[in-house]
Predict the 3D structure of the following.
Amino acid sequence: MTATASRSCCGAEPRVTFVRLARAQESELPHELSLAFSDSDSDYEPASLLSRHLQGSSQRDAQSEAAMMMNRAEAQRRAETALQDLWVARESVEFCVRPNPVAHTNGVVINGSATGGTPSGP
């Protein structure tokens, strides 16, 4: 899940709580990912393979070309990981934090829970 903090969302009223959960539509996400690479097990010949997301109704395809030498098993693992990362990243949360003297920086852990409702689409 991606978290984005914005101070401008609070506006003039510092006590306003703003949290928005969002989920990208399935149609915007790839159903399959094609990865082109150099196969180290076959004299570095160009090769490609597919990774498919088995659930959902998306019809999009994504293609990636890696200037890397690897065997087919490693390429398959990387393609499956990349496709899974795209589907996991479809959910995001946007929230507002009250300005204070201690600045929030990258890596700050923010705990919370969402109750009720469902994530909204774009």
